[in-house]
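Suppose a colleague, Dr. K., hands you the sequence of a protein chain of 390 amino acids and asks what its three-dimensional shape might be. Before reaching for any lab equipment, you can write down a predicted structure in token form. Begin with the sequence itself:
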Amino acid sequence: MTTFFSNDSRIIITCNKRLSPYLQQEVTELGFTPVRTFSTGIELKGTINDCIKLNLNLRCASQVLYSLKEFQANGPDDVYKELSSIEWEKIIAADGHFSVTSNVDHPSIRTSLFANVKVKDAIVDRMRDNTGSRPNSGPELDKTVVHLFWREELAEIFLDTSGETLAKHGYRKIPGKAPMLEALAAATLVATKWDRVSPFINPMCGSSTIAIEAALLATNRAPGLFRANYAFMHIVGYDKGVYEHERQLLFAQIKDLSELTIIASDISADAINISKINAAAAGVEHYIEFTVGDFETTEVPEVEGGVVFFNPEYGERLGVEIELEKTYSRIGDFMKKKCKGYTGYIFTGNLDLAKKIGLKAKRRIEFYTSKIDCRLLEYELYSGTRRTDV
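The predicted structure, expressed as tokens, is then:
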């Protein structure tokens, strides 16, 4: 093992907007201590070997970035100069392949493509001068990935140890209609009061991302079980044994919950067929009872402490919204009449529609998806009079 893989440096774990509290919880449970939490990620100290563990385990993350160097940059030439001083020949194989991504906000840069080319040129020129050969480069994120962060005069160069985003968990063979991103689905589940043992009911399930993520969470199946390639595998000095050890730990931590009850229903037979395929790919099809039918016919076991979770449409076109008002009202009736003793959740990007539910939300948890401000609304479901002053 090269010392490079065991060197401590700054690690930035990125995530989608408003997921950082749930990402922080995950990182802490893995034994790491966050240094800083911000709206789209967290910062900690660690090694590339630590990055391997993080990549395999995190449900709410997007990328795991390992810092190589911070520097002042007044323009592209400064970036080129600073990057030329890094020993890239000890990081990228001379006959390898790398790609460059960037997050740049500087007056000298009109397009991130220009910044990416400057980074690529610095790496290629340095390696050609020191090894006599140069690696190939391109947009693919399936080999070594270098990331430039540049704001005003402060710049930082990272190894993106993830490559393709971690926000997609790798089991979804068929996406279905308007699917929720897996990382977002996982975060919404962590935000609920579900104890991961009591019944979990998911009417209007669509392609069942919520139900599948619930089964994965309850049985402690990590995203790393479904993915075979990460960018860290293509860094010079990578020890496959470290990765294999971490992956074996993933298998060892799986729980067999024979009594787990997850029910997912949808009026579309096609959606349920897609759900079954995706659940099988995730290895949790035997934990989920899939049914075809209107959500009002969904079976709800008569127990205390379960969760019912809706992710209904929240259309913006007038005709659609008028029809959805009726749907949201029916959802409220269903939760009140059939889900007593449960905690109800509605994920929506339309709070006006949510008023039609007719129940008082105990919590309004902020989320964000597809540039839409969303809320996960929590309802304690017990006997009482319906209200409209939500």
